[in-house]
């Protein structure tokens, strides 16, 4: 059958192990783009279409591409590569993409070895019964140690290292062997086109000309033009307008059959109306049950966005609406704060998602914005037994009314070379972590499992982990419910005025230290003014820390020696540039960076 010549697969890997490079190499090898175009693109990152993704080198949105490959057996196969995002913020998207495949290439960097996300992605793939091919990448590196990696593949992953394929995605070594292995080992999808329709939505994106493009994997039945469909979890109904496959550009076709990966258009107005992971079926001839594992993605980090100048509120509204079309995980509602005017309260999947959103607003819409101190969502219970969720520190109630405050917890998995175990355990302890497990993966590496408050992971955890381990430790986490906590609201005052956007809920035991840290960081971030600025951190009216920004004395251009006009100009321009990114709060101009800086120790 047609399905015998289809292979659906994804590439899973720890960040930076070369997933995008390999995907591009496949695309080049199978002629989806000509060698000329490949070279014109710098031979790089064809799948990552968003600018920011390219610059940060992180794949955020999953995408798919259909490749034709004539194998050594003389048959031509359609290889559907479903791309998966690689960062901890986007695990749910990974799992939906994985669900759409029969097999996965598990990429391991030949010099770095197995890391936390390699494992967590492997578990996801195993949950969905995927056939897994271990791939050792970057064998061109002088530090590549193929034997050691093979041992890790056996010991840590429990996979047969004899099946591992060694490649260099960068230099194009071993790519054909890998394609052959993929065709040989990964099972073809089942030929179930005669059954009622059952298809998985694994992604969607908004195209200004065509509207919402739904990325689907058909498991049973077929999707055709004119068909009335039902999305089983949201109960939404649509009519299919077009079906097609991904070939870098969209390519329309007759129908999508069981086993195929492609897209449909169905007059969906906004991505917010769709849920990744939902099951599409035929309205008149529905399948008996939706595909398993559907869940609503929940934001875990909250922050408010304000325009730097308040007359740009309408522009910000428009930008938010447009972003929402393309980012179903972004949730927001109108918000206002005394010092900042009108803006939006937003929920994000993690700090990375927050930073990417900030950058997109600034870059794609050319809007200066400010984000308030991010917060997790607490569960509060008052003395009358009433329970509610709170994610905005500005709205924290009078403490005497509260019976209980609970905070979200995570289960953190850290994999590290043994020499860093001591300092990483100390770090986790300092972050209020409780050790659950410590496993020696082999003589050189340890897996640590900690229960930790999510809020502590937001504050500088990842950077500290990386610097303490010289970049060698890796980290992944899962949500794990709520636990009672003791937090206090810390206010930040500038010249005696509370800046509500800087208010934070902090753990009582760390409050003093955090206050000192925040004041110190703010002192660095706030530019000098014509007058002195007092920065204070206060808990319930008691000042716990203070710093002062001294008054401005010199003209900036006075620093320029000689009469170098161009330098002077540049300096003034830079000053202007900097001004654009300031927000008036009372009589103090706060740089945008101040709000995120308070989260980072240094
Ligand atoms: P994310 O998209 O951020 O998850 O990263 P990724 O896994 O897609 O990694 P990417 O393809 O961006 O590669 C990361 C880095 O490794 C880049 O600098 C690549 O040039 C480099 N790289 C990828 N493959 C190879 C290889 O075979 N050999 C060498 N030496 N470098 C490679």
What does it look like?
- Helices cover 25% and strands 34% of the residues.
- By secondary structure, it is an alpha+beta fold.
- The longest helix is centred in the last third of the chain and has 16 residues, at 565-580.
- The protein is globular, with a radius of gyration of 26 Å.
- It has 15 helices and 33 strands.
- Mean pLDDT is 84; it is low at 57-62 and 558-563.
- A hairpin with a 2-residue loop joins β27 and β28 (497-498).
- An 8-stranded antiparallel beta sheet has the order 11-10-16-7-8-15-12-13.
- The structure holds guanosine-5'-triphosphate (GTP).
How would you classify the helix and strand content by structural class?
alpha+beta
Sheet with the most strands: spatial strand order: 11-10-16-7-8-15-12-13
How far apart the termini lie comes to 60 Å
Number of continuous helical runs: 15
Helical content stands at 25-40%
Radius of gyration: 26 Å
Question: Shape from CA axes?
Answer: globular
Low-confidence stretches: 57-62, 558-563
Mean pLDDT: 84
* Largest beta-sheet details: 8 strands, antiparallel
């Amino acid at each position: 059958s047609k399905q015998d010549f289809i292979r659906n697969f994804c590439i899973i890997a720890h960040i930076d192990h070369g997933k995008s490079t390999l995907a591009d190499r496949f695309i080049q090898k199978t002629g989806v783009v000509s060698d000329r175009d490949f070279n014109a693109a710098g031979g790089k990152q064809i799948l990552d279409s968003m600018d920011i993704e390219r610059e940060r080198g992180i794949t955020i949105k999953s995408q798919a591409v259909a490749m034709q490959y004539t194998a050594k057996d003389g048959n031509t196969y359609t290889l559907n590569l479903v791309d998966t995002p690689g960062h901890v913020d986007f695990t749910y998207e990974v799992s939906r993409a994985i669900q759409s495949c029969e097999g996965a290439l598990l990429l391991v960097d030949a010099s770095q070895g197995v890391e936390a996300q390699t494992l967590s992605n492997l578990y996801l793939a195993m949950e969905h019964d995927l056939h897994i091919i271990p791939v050792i990448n970057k064998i061109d590196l002088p530090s590549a140690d193929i034997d050691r990696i093979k041992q890790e593949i056996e010991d840590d992953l429990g996979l047969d290292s004899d099946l591992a394929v060694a490649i260099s995605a960068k230099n194009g070594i071993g790519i054909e062997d890998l394609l052959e292995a993929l065709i040989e080992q990964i099972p073809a999808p089942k030929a179930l086109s005669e059954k009622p329709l059952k298809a998985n939505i694994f992604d969607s994106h908004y195209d200004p000309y065509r509207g919402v493009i739904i990325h689907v994997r058909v498991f049973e039945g077929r999707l055709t033009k004119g068909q009335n469909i039902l999305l089983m979890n949201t109960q939404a109904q649509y009519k299919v307008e077009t079906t097609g496959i991904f070939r870098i550009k969209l390519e329309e076709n007759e129908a999508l059959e069981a086993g195929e990966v492609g897209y449909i258009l169905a007059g969906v107005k906004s991505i917010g109306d769709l849920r990744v992971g939902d099951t599409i079926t035929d309205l008149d001839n529905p399948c008996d049950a939706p595909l398993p594992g559907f869940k609503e993605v929940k934001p875990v980090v909250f922050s408010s966005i304000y325009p730097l100048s308040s007359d740009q509120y309408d522009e910000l509204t428009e930008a938010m609406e447009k972003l929402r079309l393309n980012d179903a995980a972004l949730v927001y509602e109108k918000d206002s704060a005394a010092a900042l005017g009108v803006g939006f309260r937003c929920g994000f999947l993690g700090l990375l998602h927050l930073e990417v959103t900030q950058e997109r607003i600034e870059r794609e819409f050319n809007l200066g914005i400010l984000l308030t101190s991010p917060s997790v969502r607490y569960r509060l219970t008052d003395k009358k037994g009433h329970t509610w969720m709170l994610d905005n520190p500005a709205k924290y109630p009078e403490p005497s009314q509260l019976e209980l405050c609970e905070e979200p917890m995570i289960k953190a998995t850290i994999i590290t070379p043994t020499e860093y175990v001591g300092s990483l355990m100390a770090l986790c302890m300092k972050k209020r972590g409780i050790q659950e497990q410590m496993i020696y993966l082999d003589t050189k590496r340890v897996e640590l499992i900690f229960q930790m408050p999510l809020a502590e992971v937001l504050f500088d955890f990842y950077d500290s982990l990386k610097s303490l381990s010289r970049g060698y430790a890796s980290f992944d986490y899962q949500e794990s419910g709520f636990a009672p906590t003791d937090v206090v609201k810390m206010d930040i005052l500038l010249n005696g005025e509370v800046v509500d956007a800087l208010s934070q809920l902090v753990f009582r035991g760390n409050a003093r230290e955090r206050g000192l840290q925040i004041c110190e960081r703010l002192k660095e971030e706030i530019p000098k003014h014509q007058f002195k600025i007092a920065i204070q951190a206060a808990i319930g009216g008691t000042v716990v820390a203070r710093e002062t920004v001294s008054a401005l004395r010199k003209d900036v251009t006075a620093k320029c020696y000689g009469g170098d006009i161009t330098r002077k100009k540049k300096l003034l321009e830079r000053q202007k540039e900097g001004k654009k990114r300031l927000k008036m709060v009372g009589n103090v101009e706060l740089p945008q960076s101040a709000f995120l800086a308070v989260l980072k120790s240094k």
